[in-house]
Amino acid sequence: MGLWNRRQWLRNAGAAVMGSQVAAGIHPAAAGPNPVTPPGQSKKPLDLGDFQPRSMLHVTATKVLQAKFPVIDVHTHLSFQVQHQNGVGLGEKMIYPMPPGEALAVMDRKNIRTMIDLTGGHGQGLEEVVEKWQKAYPGRFLVFTEPWWEQSNQPGYPQFQADAIERAHKAGARGLKVVKTLGLYLRENVTTGSLVKLDDPRFDPMWEACGALKMPVAIHTADPDAFFLPIDRFNERFEELNNHPDWSFYGRDFPPKMDLLEARNRVFARHPKTQFIALHVGNRGEDLGYVAQCLDRLPNMHVEMGARLNELGRQPRASRKFFEKYQDRIMLGTDAVPHGKETPQQIFGDELYEIYYRFLETEDEYFDYAPAPIPPQGRWRISGLGLPDQILRKVYNENAARLLNLAM
Ligand SMILES: [Zn+2]
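Above: query sequence and zinc ion SMILES. Below: predicted holo structure tokens.
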């Protein structure tokens, strides 16, 4: 190789190396003197997980330390069944992630009068939860019971479950909680086989018993729309699903989301004397028009807003109209879970409630819906509704007090 050729070769090789560094994400400047970078070659790849943009917006930030009116939080989890298999809670043994004293301290600071512990289990487990929380602190905690999924494939189940509701009522349970297990996890052999339909008639005596005993049913059906779509670059919850692929219900033998919601609505229609709380804004905060249609069609349906400020707060004008129109049927719920690391939008504590109060009471714009460096349920921020006192009172306590027959 002659001198000229060697220089030419080095220059070409240098350009090739620089090109490959750009492709690998190393900025040319880091590799030495940077000639004028042609347009389009200065892009720096950045992992989405490392992107934490800081808003340059100058907006009002109102700190709402206490709710304007006493709160009944209709959606919390203070106890859990110990045993779970393939998404199905089993057995009567319970665990408590937090002692009552820790909850009461936050409640007193945040003007929370009562918390409803939805996942109170069944049988002896339920009796224990009622003893530890509801009876020990009258008026501060109320406990709901849960179905005996482990019995659901037994021949006498429909009557057994109706009787169990009556026993739970005697033990002190104030309502029934049905988790998304029904529709997405419960199978013909409990944890194996084909999925049990949400409106399967074997549960009819259970829904009826709740109506007869005036125990509202809090039901979680399906999950966010994005969880039923492929985990790809078009999915607005990509980060979350990429970190938790097991949260996805796309493919396999899962039914489409709308089939689940419609089956749920058939249950509501078939049991008009039973009051249902369709959790998480009726599990369709992405489409308030649809939730409004359901509420119009089904007078025994109510909603709460647990873990859905991300949806409500990114459409504040539509949400405000929704709250105005359905002000008698919306309740405050947070889906609070003590120490839940995976879901920052649900970690029980002062910060969680301050966000809910700010959302409901102020007209602040563009703030975080969860205490987390990266918005955990979609990369966006929310704006407040600035609700008037009359609606705030209903949402904070009056609607729940009426449904649960509590004196306020
Ligand atoms: Zn929940």
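Confidence is low (pLDDT under 50) at residues 1-33.
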